[in-house]
């Protein structure tokens, strides 16, 4: 069958804005894309870490950015377009994670997650879309999580933020594919990053950030809409989505204990 997105097999000369590039998957992606010849603009909140990374990647530019500040996104998008000349690919990898149970919810920690993981991504898409639609080309890569498939313990805010991203990516693919703009959704399982280092439980099928970056690039090369990995874990969670609530709750509760 025809792929849902154009295949990206050659990154030489492609202009890529990578948001959330300072650590973890974003840093690993930046290194891989630089080696493949992409023209990079790297953004994150940590300006010092961005500067250090850019010194290691020839030609990479940096633009410090807090994606939760909606007023900063439009000017930032315009600056990236000015410096790179065009936007071929924008990767929305910025995210935050705090393990939370229901009784730990506060208005502050709810908004701290949603403003980065969901609203920041949606605002960012709104900021870059006009240029892509005017050009009739472009590729949006949205990093979600398998935690968005169904409810999980300690993910009372993180999980819903990623579930909303999954729905958002599906919705905008339907709107944008006919107009020449591609949308890819990345749903990783457990990846060894500073964020997952907070977890106090054994993480099944844990992979490195480098392996995650490799999987993302392979999925883009195949033209996939949803790029999920590692398959031995993500496929199992996809199967769990098919279970009725009574069986799902029983299984997950037993596993959590």
Commentary on this structure:
This protein starts with 14 loop residues before the first strand and ends with a helix. The protein has 8 helices and 7 strands. The protein has one domain: NAD(P)-binding Rossmann-like Domain (Rossmann fold), CATH 3.40.50.720. 40% of the residues are buried. Strand 6 (181-188), helix 6 and strand 7 (226-229) form a beta-alpha-beta unit. Strands 3-2-1-4-5-6-7 form a 7-stranded parallel beta sheet, with helices on both faces. Helix 1 crosses helix 6, helix 3 packs parallel to helix 4 (107-135) and helix 4 runs parallel beside helix 5 (158-176). The chain is of the alpha/beta class. The longest helix has 29 residues, at 107-135.
Main beta-sheet strand count, sense and barrel state: 7 strands, parallel
Span between N and C termini?
Answer: 43 Å
Q: Can you identify the CATH class? A: Alpha Beta
Q: Proportion of β residues?
A: 5-15%
Number of domains: 1
- Tell me the overall shape: globular
Q: What does the radius of gyration come to?
A: 18 Å
The DSSP helix count reads 8
**Helix fraction by DSSP (H/I, runs of at least 4):** 40-55%
Mean pLDDT: 95
Q: Strand order, biggest sheet?
A: 3-2-1-4-5-6-7
CATH evolutionary superfamily: NAD(P)-binding Rossmann-like Domain
Stated plainly, the CATH topology is called Rossmann fold
Oligomeric status = single chain
Number of strands: 7
CATH architecture annotation: 3-Layer(aba) Sandwich
Backbone structural class = alpha/beta
Could you name the ranges where pLDDT drops below 50 across 5 or more consecutive residues? none
Order of secondary-structure elements: EHEHEHEHEHEHEHH
């Amino acid at each position: 069958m025809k792929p849902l997105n154009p295949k990206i097999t050659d990154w030489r000369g492609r202009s890529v804005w990578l948001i959330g590039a300072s650590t973890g998957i974003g840093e690993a992606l930046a290194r891989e894309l630089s080696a493949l010849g992409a023209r990079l603009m790297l953004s994150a909140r940590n300006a010092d870490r961005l500067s250090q990374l850019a010194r290691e990647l020839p030609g990479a530019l940096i633009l410090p950015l807090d994606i939760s500040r909606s007023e900063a996104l439009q000017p930032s998008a315009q600056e990236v377009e000015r410096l790179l000349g065009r936007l071929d690919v924008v990767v929305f990898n910025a995210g935050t994670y705090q393990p939370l149970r229901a009784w730990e919810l506060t208005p502050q920690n709810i908004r701290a997650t949603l403003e980065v993981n969901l609203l920041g991504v949606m605002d960012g898409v709104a900021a870059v879309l006009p240029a892509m639609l005017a050009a009739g080309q472009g590729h949006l890569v949205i990093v979600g999580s398998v935690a968005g498939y169904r409810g999980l313990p300690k993910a009372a805010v993180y999980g819903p933020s990623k579930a909303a991203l999954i729905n958002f990516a599906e919705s905008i693919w339907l709107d944008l594919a006919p107009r020449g703009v591609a949308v890819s959704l990345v749903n990783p399982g457990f990846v060894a990053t500073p964020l997952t280092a907070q977890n106090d439980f054994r993480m099944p099928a844990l992979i490195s950030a480098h392996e995650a970056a490799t999987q993302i690039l392979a999925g883009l090369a195949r033209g996939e809409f949803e790029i999920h990995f590692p398959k031995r874990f993500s496929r199992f969670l996809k199967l769990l989505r098919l279970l009725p609530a009574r069986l799902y709750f029983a299984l997950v509760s037993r596993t959590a204990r």
